[in-house]
């Protein structure tokens, strides 16, 4: 039997990135070349878990079991420092070489498993708890890769990543319920604005719905702004990348607040991207 080489394992992960190029963070190409490969491996890990949670014809129970098997295989790879699965073989090498906390990978898997079981959130704290697992580990891993994982940086990164996750929710409010029966806006806030689930499934764009989404986006914007100092403090290409990510989130938030139909998905134009880069280079918001 042919033994899998580390080079083959990394090539496998790079192919996953190429297959999902449209979803791979464009700003990551601002990163130092030496970090693009480990980031592609981390992306491949999360991408496959996301596919298990959302893609295909499995029911939620089957998806949960598939994610449990995925986690067990990952745990075995960590124990053995090897796996016949090229993704896990490459990932264990990345974790070892960059001294990455393994709990952050388990946090991501927790979020994917939550998606198979939790379809509604009672309050905003519950949504923040989900973001703690689904979004914050990504920023923390980037900081660990760059050896910039101070307590202050981690806190600011959490604010940015949670805000980005919320903004992503607000772009997909109809798609989430239509495709996965999920609503990420707290049920107590739906009641506060006299919103029913039919607003989401039937795309009812009335005044109450507009007020609800204005409230959501303004809160996400404040959260994003609370973490922007991270982009100012990080130097070099990594700092530029973080500032571009922040600018992108703020640009989408602005469009969400100005859009007439809350179910329309905003798009960034070439001009928007130029303005984002201008602010990122000047370190302004």
TrEMBL record:
Catalytic class of the enzyme: transferase
EC number: 2.5.1.21
Entry keyword set: Transferase
GO MF annotations in UniProt: geranylgeranyl diphosphate synthase activity; squalene synthase [NAD(P)H] activity
Keyword Transferase part of the UniProt annotation: yes
This protein's record includes keyword Chloroplast: no
Pfam family, one: SQS_PSY
PANTHER family found in the cross-reference section: BIFUNCTIONAL LYCOPENE CYCLASE/PHYTOENE SYNTHASE
Protein name as catalogued: Squalene synthase
Upper classification of the organism: unclassified sequences, metagenomes, ecological metagenomes
